[in-house]
Amino acid sequence: MESKTVTKDKRKRADAVQQLLAFGALILLFVFFSFASEYFFTFSNVVGILIATAVNGLLALGATFVIISGGIDLSVGTVMTLCSVMSAVTIKNWGLPIPVGVIVGILTGGFAGFVNGIMISKLKLPPFIATLGMLNVARGLSLVITDLSPIYFPLETGFSQIAMGSVLGMIIPGFDIPNGVLIMFGSAVIAGLILTKTVIGRYCFAIGSNEEAARLSGVNIVFWKTAIYTLSGLFVGIAGVIIASRLNSAQPALGQGYELDAIAAAVIGGISMSGGEGTMVGTIIGAFIISTLTNGLRIMSVPQEWQIVVTGLIIISAVYIDIIRRHSKK
Asked: Going from the N-terminus, what domains does the chain have, and what CATH number goes with each?
């Protein structure tokens, strides 16, 4: 019992150090880009970073559960698009109320996550293959359902206010932080509580640390892995609603590439790709690092192809640092 307590304390200290380093890197990026461009540290640009982080942050929250459990999900980008399409179809084509459309979008993400979980836990498909297949299925369904054309929400529905309205701005005049940002932070708090205070969170760490040991301890691996992927899918569904609201439309060709940013945010925030380690705070910091870096490079007129190169190098560096960190513990 004492050994378990010591291990848990060590993990908490390691997580705290990782979060501190990630936060320090975020501050350095802000300082660097503020000196590099006078347009970076302005209220409108910071708000732009926040709303960009909202979508990637929500995807990264879902990815965190999966990666901590020792899995991977490459389908989050196109599933997010399918969720936005289903919301649009429900509201625009079927004429149902906005709350119903929001629920349909979120549940679509949950169902996609459930299918991923069944394929991985029950059918024993490798997570990489299962979610890669789901990536294409979701992308294809989005194109089929929309007949290759975007679905635009009528302005009178007010759907865009879900993400781009500002409840905070109504309370504090001039402080117009978009609702999408508040939804992301609220979701992060809920995700953090689920990860640290619930059974599914404990089993997430247990399965990621040693799946065989968890199975021998009586953990129903099929059930809990499916639950973890389903939970991740619900956060993807929320991201789908937010991006549809932000664009005031469902864009069926959108989505690919978002999964890499979500995984990058989680890894940069200290989530171990080997499973069993990580925090939601670290993930959100990682999401802000990705958004800040992308925004700063864009303001400095760095070509998009080089932005992708830089992001890729950061992912490689973060994974390599994680490998070194894990070896140093042995």
From this structure: 49-329 (1.10.3470)
